[in-house]
Amino acid sequence: MVDTWLVIGLGNPGPRYEATRHNVGQMVVDDLARRRGETFTAHKANARVVETWLRPGAAKLVLAKSNSYMNTSGGPVAALAKFYGVPAERVVVVHDELDIPFDTLKLKVGGGHGGHNGVRDIAKALGTPEFPRVRVGIGRPVGRQDPADWVLDPFSSAERTTLPILVGDAADAVEQLVDEGLLAAQQRWHAPRD
């Protein structure tokens, strides 16, 4: 039996949201697909997918982006998990995280949703919060800006200079999580970076 992992990059559909902080999860799965020379195709689960491999002879990866808005990500994710026969413990959700500083990654399995409506909806749809998460730090707004507005803003010009590195690191973290397990990935990505 093929070892299959479903990797979901969270975000909102359409050009209005493409470059926003809330869509950094989709940027990561785009990077994973680009590394493999693949492009996304429509799937009946209201999503776009790429079926590929971690590397030849290793795990199968289903990279996915929902066509629904962030707050209703659960339906497409649960439908894809069912379609591909992937249990929750192999559904990797890549998402933005307000409570982690920009340019920082954290990985975990399970726990609360931390106010992230996409994660909340996926946990509800899968019937469990026990799925791996690659949390990409976007930081909190300074001053009085509402976090709900902050996540829908594009990255600042200063952030955009570092963003490709952050996205690439998050893609590396996904690959390591699938290949070597959560603990090895945490040991690498939770360590202070130069």
Largest sheet: 7 strands, mixed
Beta percentage is 15-25%
Order of adjacent strands in the largest pleated sheet: 2-3-4-1-5-7-6
What is the CATH T-level topology? Rossmann fold
Low-pLDDT runs: none
Determine the CATH superfamily.
Answer: Peptidyl-tRNA hydrolase
Give the termini separation: 40 Å
Query: How many strands appear in the DSSP assignment?
Result: 7
How would you sum up the global shape? Answer: globular
Description:
It is a single chain. The protein has 194 residues and is α/β, with parallel strands linked by helices. The chain has one domain (4-189): Peptidyl-tRNA hydrolase (Rossmann fold). It has helices at residues 24-35, 74-84, 117-126, 147-150, 157-180, 182-189; strands at residues 4-9, 41-43, 47-53, 60-66, 91-97, 105-109, 132-137. A seven-stranded mixed sheet has the order 2-3-4-1-5-7-6, sandwiched between helices. The longest helix has 24 residues, at 157-180. It starts with a strand and ends in a 5-residue tail after the last helix.
